[in-house]
Amino acid sequence: MTGAQQNRNTIYVEDAAITDVRIFPDNQFIMRLNAPRCARTATPGSFIFIRCDESISMRRPLSIMRADATNGWVEILFKIVGAGMLALSKQQRGDTVSIIGPVGQGFEPFPERRLPLLIGGGVGIPPMVFLAEMLKNDYPGCRPLVIMGSEIPFPFELSQSKLVTPWLAKNVNSTMPLLEDWGIPTRLASLQNYDGCFDGYVTDLARDWLNTLAADELAQVEIFACGPTPMLKAVALLAQEFNLRCEVSLEEFMACAVGGCAGCAVSVKGDDGTIAMRRVCVDGPVFDAATVFGG
Length: 295
Ligand SMILES: Cc1cc2nc3c(=O)[nH]c(=O)nc-3n(C[C@H](O)[C@H](O)[C@H](O)COP(=O)(O)OP(=O)(O)OC[C@H]3O[C@@H](n4cnc5c(N)ncnc54)[C@H](O)[C@@H]3O)c2cc1C
Ligand code: FES
Description:
The protein is α/β, with parallel strands linked by helices. Helix content is 22%, strand content 32%.
């Protein structure tokens, strides 16, 4: 298909030229795609469904990490898993890939909750970057804290933070330069002894912070998380422990990503306690944690 084409009013099919590729250790890639229509309506938590190569018919879902509506680009971060991501990693600047997007319901922060906690693990980091940028731009007075975890080297150069986090040991100060530039305190957790990173799980680091908050501060916290399912379950439990609202972004295998096949359905508890099947692609991927993991 050539050119951009509107689909379902808000999801577009676009032939997106690759304008930049950055390569990081352990086969991780950040790719910038020229996709003006997608960039215009993307929200944090939404994703693209990308054709990795003409020889692979089934597209793959990848979160949008950044979207610039003015300049018409979106950025994705991915690591090589199997044939799809391997094929995508071979695409170069100047090549064109077909994308469908933005797909899905993203995160919905409450403006009055001024202390959002964003937790991203591994390839769950991208939507947290997007959400942090949105909170910075659109939620004046909001003071997010971002916690990222990885057991392989982080997909960015670590820098030392100058933003104060008095509740943390001074040597836990490695950060993501992009978020540091935005003035958003960000701390990193890993079990791999990386320089300046918290030695433990993202949820341990999050708990340390939550324990320092007074009741009126806790009332302003809500949690947003994306990452592997065990991490999301641990985050959901943490939210329950502190009685906090929590949204999680789920991953499921996707055949169509436009709501047609129900292959990505998960069971979700409704307000009245009844269980219903919801499609991760179009009803999610973001859900209230308590409705998918209990609580
Ligand atoms: C909403 C959403 C957002 C995602 N965002 C990112 C991201 O930002 N960065 C990133 O690196 N990865 C992300 N993933 C996971 C990514 O889609 C899979 O790693 C990728 O599809 C694997 O394809 P493959 O061919 O390389 O691997 P294979 O394992 O060979 O894939 C075989 C099949 O399984 C499917 N599949 C495998 N793992 C997953 C998975 N975890 N989720 C869904 N389908 C899977 C593939 O689509 C393919 O159909 C996301 C998944 C979802 C659902
Ligand atoms: S992947 Fe087909 S309905 Fe979600």
